[in-house]
Amino acid sequence: xxxxxxxxxxxxxxxxxxxxxxxxxxxxxxxxxxxxxxxxxxxxxxxxxxxxxxxxxxxxxxxxxxxxxxxxxxxxxxxxxxxxxxxxxxxxxxxxxxxxxxxxxxxxxxxxxxxxxxxxxxxxxxxxxxxxxxxxxxxxxxxxxxxxxxxxxxxxxxxxxxxxxxxxxxxxxxxxxxxxxxxxxxxxxxxxxxxxxxxxxxxxxxxxxxxxxxxxxxxxxxxxxxxxxxxxxxxxxxxxxxxxxxxxxxxx
Length: 252
Known about the structure:
Blueprint: E1 4-8, H1 16-25, E2 30-36, E3 55-61, E4 64-69, H2 73-84, E5 91-98, H3 105-108, H4 110-120, E6 125-130, H5 143-156, E7 162-168, E8 177-179, E9 185-193, E10 203-211, H6 220-225, E11 229-235, H7 241-246
Parallel strand pairs: 1-2, 1-5, 2-4, 5-6, 6-7, 8-11
Antiparallel strand pairs: 3-4, 7-11, 9-10
Helix pairs in contact: 1-5, 2-4
């Protein structure tokens, strides 16, 4: 039986990045897509609870089925696993996101929400993102690398509760692939006023990501700045085990 691969994203089922990812993984197995019906960037692991969730069949062909869903990326995965698929997928893949999800961005990302949900089910998963927010930006050159990483993940598996967060620099020639930790960074937020028509105060949330350890060659941001693809293994268990030991001395 051919492997079953579930795809989703946070840019919507019509995104150029998703089309490239379908091309990358189709040779590896049967592909089932359940992706949002529109952009859901920054949705993180939010779920859709205030309105009913709906889905729509987009198209089918040999080895490929595509559905759109009205929910968040996380809900797309839940819907596929609980209602649409006849068996558990062998791999879940997210992306290719238009915009970096390196370092702390993975906490906000709807792309990595797909792989977080996969990890919670014990299903190996990979999230792919490109450091370019242009929805029409070129992603086709990333297809061979995405296919290579997905193939290795299928063959080797991942520990329960872990996934791979892959980020690509926006360059034509990628030097290679580095396995990295996520960099310590922070967002310096800016709230830019925008026109308002009915009173109140309205702003666009913008800002700049600041790398707090720019010269550390073990981090994902360093790798991307030096034209490498960065793979960061992520665990969904955020427990600080060292702090547990320290707290044994607290007077609790």
